[in-house]
Amino acid sequence: MNNSIILALAAVALVFLLLLLKKSSARKLPPVEPSEEEAALQQEEETSEADLEAEAETEISEEEDEEAGEAAPEEDAEPVSDEEAEVDDSDSELISDEELQDQEEAEAGDTEVVAEVDQEEAELELDEEPALDAEISEEIDFEAEEEPAEELPEEAAVEEVVEVEDEPAPEELSVALPVETFEQRLFTRKEERLAALTEAIDNNDESTRERLQAELVAITEGLSFLDQSHEQETACRNSASGALELLKDELDSSAYEEARESVLSGETQKAEEVFDTVVEKGSVHAALAAFQSGRLAECRTDFTKAMDSLEKAVEFDGKNPDYLRSAALLARKLYHHTKALNWFTALEKVLDDQGGDAVDLALARRELAYTSALVGRHKEAGTLYKKSMVSLSKLRGQDDPEMAVCWLQIGKLQEALGQYDKAEDPYKKALAIMDKVEGNSVTGEILSKLAGLYMELEREQEAIPLFERLCAFKEESPNPDKATLAMAYSDLAEAYRVTGKYPESEQNYLKSLAITEDLRGKDHAAVGSVLQELAQLCERQGKKEEAEAHRERAAAIFQKVMEEQEAAGQESVDFKL
Asked: What does pTM read for this prediction?
């Protein structure tokens, strides 16, 4: 029994000892590393939990931002790189709240600057055209009853021909025409035209009178701006010499030499005859020959011959811009507005179809606009002016002289329609541009038109400085046109008279008188007209003796002129300066 108890106690002690040993060994074992699959699974679970938390925080933040200020403009956030996304939260603690605010303000400032620049560029590209378009629209709002569009006659239509391949440009010969010789020829032509004009007036030949007046205007302008007209003459002759070289194989050697010599230094009629012979033969170069003949005749101011030849050039080749432009411009000078309109229309279409020089197209549209207005197509003119001037302002700038011509034309059209108030701004814009250009005939015309407009509007005080500038402008010319110069001094004198400045008025009437006597002779009716004005001025200033002397002399002149007119069987007296 005792043995059984002892054995039982021993067994219990052994079990207790084993339990103690097991517990002690468990405390000393290292932690068991999880497998790769278990680690990946655990990481995925942790990441999913973090993403869910981040999504929740983002949604809350967005809702708070929307509630805080929906009016704030949204900005496109730049994508954040993976490296930037992995920055520890501890790094963000290194940036203070003030620094973070400064950084955000700087970024916002950069965004505003970029937005400003983009807006300015957009305004330059998109708003410039509408602004100019509105300005032009305001000036060319022609308030006139639109005349029905007239049908262009078939004989004025441009005919198409088989196109000739462009020939290589021949070498041009050097024209040797001294400016002195050129000037003397202009004076000779002027005397011839004046004599012919007197005869046409005596015979009541209206068509001849208009043509001679147009030729005299061209000659007078050539003399007034001698250097420019000499350059144009030289260019015309050089072009003709090049054409002669091209046609050399078709010509007799003697005819070629005579034509060549006349182009290089002499009168050009012989060259014109040679070109006309080529046209009559039906040569493949007939259009070129007709064009050169017409241009040479125009340089001689023989507008009838020139018009015939240029019209033939257009008939042979109705797609040549040079032929169309030259024919249209000359036709308008001769008041053949229907033909001019037809050719300018063809020119605009040809240039538009060819897609060539945009400046040439803009200028063609301007001339088409002006001619359209002359025949009463004011709406068409307005549209064309807008297209032309917007293009010119982009290609050449708004201060280009060609823009001044546009404004001048618009002013003249408004004045012709009786819209005097609307004519002022275009004239002033044209003058502002031309004030930056020296020695251009357009400047004189603008001064004359604007000063005359002010006189019409009874704003004589504003006209005075313009007339003074006009007189000085004409005096600076190497060959001032005495008729228009005398008229300018007379207009200036009248402006002074109306404003009550009698001494200044008298001084300028005396200048006009001296020029008129030199130009017309001391017994011309125009001299008598100036003397009458001087008599009235002297009377108002209390100079009775001088007034009486002027009055008596004027009466004697008129008596003599009337007697001469009666003897010649004429009914009218020319009082023009």
From this structure: 0.71
Residues in the chain: 577
Q: At what angle do helices 420-434 and 128-139 cross, to 10 degrees?
A: 130
Mean pLDDT across 294-317: 97
Q: What is the pLDDT of residues 449-469, one digit of tens each?
A: 999 999 999 999 999 999 999
Rg of the chain over all Cα atoms, to the nearest angstrom: 45
Average pLDDT (257-262) is 93
* Exposure string for 194-213, b = 16+ CB within 10 A, e = fewer: eebbeebbeeeeeebbebbe
Among candidate residues 550, 506, 494, the one with its CA nearest the CA of residue 527: 550
Q: Which long-range contacts (CB under 8 A, 24 or more apart) does 463-467 make?
A: 463/491, 463/495, 464/492, 464/495, 464/496, 464/499, 467/491, 467/492, 467/495
Rounded Cα distance, 400 and 390, in Å: 12
Phi, psi for 284 (deg, rounded to 5): -65, -20
Q: 22 CB contacts (<8 Å, ≥6 apart)?
A: none
Instruction: Convert the pLDDT of each residue in 190-202 to its tens digit.
Output: 999 999 999 999 8
The predicted pLDDT at position 5 comes to: 58
Q: How far, CA to CA in Å, does 453 sit from each of 291, 472, 535, 569?
A: 39, 19, 27, 38
pLDDT of res. 154:
40
How far the first Cα of the chain sits from its last, in Å, is: 172
- pLDDT-derived band at 571, boundaries 50, 70, 90: low
* Average pLDDT of the segment spanning 305-314: 98
Name the residue with tokens 């290589």.
168
Distance, in Å, from the CA atom of 405 to the CA atom of 52, rounded to the nearest integer, reads 74
Complete domains list, the chain, with CATH: 157-318 (no CATH), 322-377 (no CATH), 397-474 (1.25.40.10), 481-577 (1.25.40.10)
Averaged pLDDT, 518-525 = 93
Q: Look-up: residue for tokens 């949604």?
A: 59
Q: Report yes or no: 441 and 479 within 8 Å, Cβ to Cβ.
A: no
